[in-house]
Amino acid sequence: MGAIDADAHVVECEKTFEYIEPEYRDLKPRVMVQKTEDVIELDNEGVAAQREYWVIDGRLQPKEGNIGHNTSKESREMADVNIRLEHMNELEIDVQVLYPTVFLRAWTQDPTTEYAICRSYNRWLADIWKAAPDRLKWVVMPPLTSMQKTMKELDFAKENGAVGIFMRGLECERRLDNPYFFPLYERAQELDMPICFHSGNNSFRVRNIYATEGGFARSKLPVVSAFHSLLMSDIPAKFPDLRWGFVEVSAQWIPYALNDLGLRFKRKGRRMSDTILADNNFYVACQATDELDYILPYSGEDQLVVGTDYGHADTSSEIEALRMVKNDGKVTAEVADKILEGNARALYGL
After folding, report:
1. Residue 52's beta-bridge partner residues?
2. Is pTM, for the whole model, over 0.90?
3. Is residue 62 part of a domain?
4. Rounded Cα–Cα distance for residues 345 and 240 (Å)
5. Between the N and C ends of the chain, which has fewer C-beta atoms within 10 Å?
C-alpha cells in the first residue's frame, strides 16, 4: 500500500508502433527531422529546440515539445522499466497510472488509421505492464470511430492490466453526452473500468479555432464542459455503476461548475445534491497548486486524486506533487492519505 500517481505519462517512441499489423504498415507513424535553422520552436521548458515531429495520418504532431527534462529518456519512453521504477521509488510513488502523450491532441478521424495505431499502442502498454504489473497500470486507447473494434480492444486491455478507458474532452467531433458513446459506457460498466477524461481534445474543428492558444481553451475546458454536460443530461444515472475520472485539468473549477449547475437545476425545478460528485461516481485529479481547503467542501474528501503528469513539462506538471500534498499542510493527514491512495484505488478499481 502506498501513494498512487493517478496521472503519469509515457512518451511514444518508435517502439510504440512496432506492433502495427503487417497489413497496416503503410499507416505506421514516421519521424520527421527538421534540418533548417530559420524557424526554431522551443519546447515547453524553453530549453531545447523542437526538431522532431511525428507524421501521423499525413499531419505533423510535435514529438519533443512537452518533454520534462527532470525525467530520463529511458524512463519516460519506457526503454528501461527498471529505471522508471527506481525513479518512482525516489519519489515515493508506489503505483503509476499511465496515459499517452501524442494522442492528447486531434490526430485522425480515419477509422482504419485509428484502429491500427490504437491497437499498436495498447499492445506496447500491455508489454510495459507485464514488466511491472503491480506498479505500472494503464488506460486503454479505444478506436472510437469503430465501436465494434473498440469493444475488442477493451477486452484485450482488461486482460492485460488496463484500469481505465482513455477519452478526451471531445471525441469524434461529438460531445461526450452523445448517445453514440452509450455502448462504450455500458461495456465499461460491465468491465468495471472507469471512463478517464484526460486534458485533450479530438475535434479538429475546435483545435483549429484555438490553434495558437496555449492549451487552456482547446484542451482543458472541453473536459470541464464534459463534466457539466454529463451531469446536466443525467448520463451517469443511465450507468449507475460506472466511475468517471476528470484528469489533468486541476480541480479549482469544481465550485464554479457546481454553482452553475445548481442555478440551472433550480430553473428546471430540480434540486442538486450536496454530494453530487460522490452520487455519480465522479473523481477529479487535483494539482498541488490547487487551494484544496476551498475545493474540498464542494468535492468531498473521497472524490479527489492527484497526479504528477510524469514525463511532461506543461502547466499541470509537478513531479513532486504527491509529496507536496502529503507535506504542505493544506489538508489533514487523513485527507491527504485519501487523495494519495484510497480515492485513486476506488477510481481505478485497484
Report:
1. 33
2. yes
3. no
4. 18
5. N
